UniProtKB/TrEMBL annotation, chain B:
Belongs to the ComF/GntX family. PANTHER family: DNA UTILIZATION PROTEIN YHGH (PTHR47505:SF1). The lineage of its organism: Bacteria, Bacillati, Bacillota, Bacilli, Bacillales. CDD domains: PRTases_typeI. This is ComF family protein. SUPFAM superfamilies: PRTase-like. Signal peptide: none annotated. Residues 111-198 form the Phosphoribosyltransferase domain. It comes from the Bacteria. It comes from Ureibacillus endophyticus.
Length: 472, 199
């Protein structure tokens, strides 16, 4: 849009409504289902770039390969042909991102191509905590990536204060007028990070995006989103930080990993933050020469609790016949007598639901949670507020929760679902508080697996890295 | 029929482990499209009359299914109940008549949900009706629904035909009754109805 030079000429352009510009900046959206009236979109159409929903290219033997332009999915199994009554021909749609509204080959996707607003550079960090030596080293390294445009991995043990490490780096980026995105595979993590960032960055507009999130107004310079929500952005961010980068489904879903690359601007850096980087991530770091920060110590300077293995032979049979195995029963009763909150992890929802009434016979306030539980948040809050003595859970609570003085037992630690990273995360729930740096973490098993060994060895290795050769 | 057309559950995306059996080789049965756990969430409907036959009750799982199929436009989900629909409708000699959508509604939705269900189940059908009202029954109270005037018109001669009307859901029965009355008045020999869901 040309600026008016002489005030005497009639100016015939449109003054762009800031809401529309702010909303669409960096976003990719279906033309017909925006949150604005359709006429408005049509009048502003010249400020948008229009791309077809599904693009096709040719592969081997001239085979058509479809690609969804919103989620960049290329798994051909997820493309469906159907007879479209709108175009009277066969159209294709993508099932991968259908929950966000269907993208077909006959839908238009719009991206903002009009004038771009400038971001504010006035930001304050209202946080007066202090960093340990390892933490401040990591923050310096992380801040550097903004200017160097180099990808980075922050490997910090559970309870090392990962969120706090992000603060100075995010502040430095915001002060340069850059747009920052913090993405994570889990909604729970978004819900936990959002208030914490809002508190310390009082002058910054921050949006939290997750499934069914309320509409937030203004131009957000800092976006905290689930990785799924990244499908809705394109070429938007100058810095992308992926928290808990090893959590399900991010590592399994190629489209989600592509989404992270899609939302960043070209040459913008990605930072991964995790407690348990997979072999795949380690290989990528080595191969692509990423920066690497490692924090083996917790913020309170105490070693990580090392899990203890206890046999619990045929626990499944015993629970199914209506009896809690003796060792587990003793453990639970000790926790109840000592008034310590506890978490018991189960491998399947089914087993947990059989066990729940048995535990409720000992203490009727013991509750159970799983992924599809609507009261998940309230139940965890109850445990934190010491309203209930303990919770039975599936792997859903393996990361992102902090409860003072919690004691943890894993039933059936040999199950496939408990991978070494899951077990490390579960062990990381224990002893996060300065006042209670120790706690019990017991793996009850029906035979020891390599994953269990791997988890324990990794924790011992981290402790020796953090504390030298000192015996723990 | 392609055997490996669907490899993951269409509803929860869990991998389906197709077991190759002699039966699947030699018969022309439809391969599974949803996993056993999702299948168990749908509750069959106990039919009391022979006039209107329904397959499933309207529960939370069915609500999610219908939402994703009709409103998120996931056409692929038409395949979920194809085996059951095929079993119900393939043996009859009567003419299958799906309840139509209004043409503008069809343009908006880009597919006719009942037609797609029948196509997926390999049931031949014929259109006798056309809808003349654009607004839907969704969001109306029971009284409002029952008070709606006739909203179908005939587009083909149906004299002396045995007809089975097919719709996706039966709630108050207004849609089915209007269609039935119109067809009977126009000389159809008998009219029965089949719906996937009973609300």
């Amino acid at each position: 849009m040309k600026l008016l030079k002489s005030p005497f000429k009639w100016y015939k352009g449109i003054i762009i409504e800031p809401q529309i510009r702010d909303f669409f900046l960096g976003r990719i959206w279906i033309r017909t289902s925006t949150p604005f009236p359709q006429e408005k979109i049509e009048t502003y159409l010249r400020f948008f770039k229009i791309t077809p929903g599904i693009s096709e290219k040719r592969g081997f033997f001239n085979r058509i390969i479809f690609r969804c332009n919103r989620c960049h999915n290329e798994n051909q199994q997820e493309f469906v042909h159907y007879n479209c009554a709108r175009c009277n021909q066969t159209c294709v749609y993508c099932r991968h991102c259908i929950n966000m509204g269907r993208v077909t080959s006959c839908t238009d996707l719009i991206t903002w191509n009009g004038p771009k607003p400038k971001f504010s550079r006035k930001h304050v960090l209202d946080w007066d905590g202090t960093f340990t030596e390892a933490q401040s080293k990591a923050t310096k390294e992380l801040t550097k990536i903004i200017t160097r445009k180099n990808n980075h991995l922050v490997h910090a043990v559970c309870g090392a204060g990962k969120t706090e490490i992000l603060f100075p780096a995010v502040l430095a980026a915001l002060k340069k007028g850059l747009r920052v995105c913090i993405a994570t595979p889990r909604t729970d993590v978004v819900l936990e990070l959002f208030p914490r960032f809002q508190k310390v960055f009082a002058n910054t507009i921050i949006h939290a995006l997750y499934g069914n999130a309320p509409v937030q107004s203004g131009l957000a310079q800092l976006v905290i989103a689930t990785t799924h929500q990244l499908y809705r952005f394109e070429n938007a961010f100058d810095v992308v930080i992926v928290d808990e980068a090893d959590a399900f489904p991010y590592t399994f879903d190629l489209a989600l990993q592509r989404a992270v690359i899609k939302v960043k601007k070209q040459n913008s850096p990605i930072a991964l933050v995790t407690a348990t980087p997979s072999h795949q991530i380690h290989a990528q770091v080595k191969h692509e020469k990423w920066g690497y920060s490692f924090i083996p110590k917790r913020y309170h300077g105490h070693p990580l609790p090392v899990p203890e293995f206890q046999s619990l032979w045929s626990y499944e049979k015993q629970i199914q016949s209506g009896k809690i195995p003796r060792k587990l029963l003793n453990w639970t009763e000790t926790r109840l007598n000592n008034n310590e909150p506890f978490l018991i992890f189960f491998p399947t929802i089914k087993l947990m639901e059989i066990a729940a009434p048995l535990f409720q016979q000992i203490n009727e306030n013991i509750l159970s949670v799983h992924a599809e539980d609507a009261d998940r948040k309230e139940k965890v809050l109850k445990l934190r507020n010491e309203e209930i003595p303990g919770l039975l859970t599936t792997t859903i609570l393996e990361r992102g929760i902090t409860i003072k003085n919690v004691q943890v037992a894993v039933v059936g630690a040999e199950s496939k679902i408990f991978t070494s990273s899951a077990l490390i995360q579960i062990s990381g729930r224990v002893g996060r508080n300065v006042d209670f740096p120790n706690g019990e973490i017991i793996f009850y098993h029906h035979g020891i697996t390599t994953e269990m060994d791997e988890a324990r060895n990794e924790i011992i290795r981290l402790n020796t890295e953090g504390f030298g050769d000192k015996k723990i | 029929m392609k055997r490996n057309e669907v490899t993951n559950c269409l509803i929860c995306n869990a991998p389906l482990n197709h077991q190759i059996t002699w039966k699947s080789f030699l018969t022309n049965a439809f391969p599974k499209t949803i996993c056993t756990e999702c299948e168990q969430k749908f509750v069959p409907y106990e039919n009391t009359s022979k006039e209107v036959i329904s397959l499933y009750q309207y529960n939370d799982a069915m609500k999610d299914f219908l939402h994703r199929y009709k409103f998120m436009h996931d056409v692929m989900l038409a395949k979920v109940f194809r085996a059951q629909i095929h079993e119900q409708l393939s043996k009859t000699h009567a003419t299958i008549v799906p309840i139509p959508l209004h043409p503008t509604k069809l343009k908006e939705r880009s597919f006719a949900q009942v037609d797609e269900l029948l196509k997926a189940a390999h049931i031949p059908y014929e259109h006798f009706l056309e809808k003349t009202m654009t607004d839907t029954q969704v969001g109306k109270t029971r009284q409002e629904r029952l008070a709606t005037p006739q909203f179908f018109k005939l587009i083909k001669n149906c004299k002396n035909k045995e007809i089975i009307l097919v719709d996706d859901i039966y709630t108050t029965g207004v849609t089915i009754n209007h269609a039935k009355n119109l067809l009977l008045h126009s000389g159809a020999k008998s009219v029965r109805a089949f719906t996937l869901i009973r609300g």
